[in-house]
Known about the structure:
This protein is mainly α. Helices cover about 75% and strands about 0% of the residues. The termini are far apart. The model has no long low-confidence stretch (mean pLDDT about 80).
Amino acid sequence: MSTKAQITGVWNVLRILGWVAVATLLVLPFVAMQFSQDVNWAAADFIAAGVILGGSGLFTEFLVRQSRSNAYRVGAVLAVLAIFMTVWANLAVGMIGDEDNRYNLLFGGVILLGLVGMIVARFKSDGMALVNDRRWFVTGCVKPSPAACKACR
């Protein structure tokens, strides 16, 4: 078996494991609700979690298919994971104060700016490197803004 076929096989196994992880994360709260009163999710919570987890999975699938480079693929997975964790934390408890604090919306602005930069760069690694470069004026100014708002408060 060629090395290229082995790498493709590894990525296919990782894809399957990723979707199994998504399904597991959706089932865990349901199972926990059967055994504990501490976990109390409504239907809307399951829908929101499904949209966030499924959207993250689909976006990861899309990005991983954009390049054959393993470095690009790992970077794409880590970027989607960071976006997922930021959104999940903001919806669950909020990063600044509680989840209802309007300054938490600024984290969404940082994510949106990164996504716009990825689209402008056409998901090519050279262009996306500019988006996340410290010298790039816009992201350099926007990334610290949520913390600055908390400090000014």
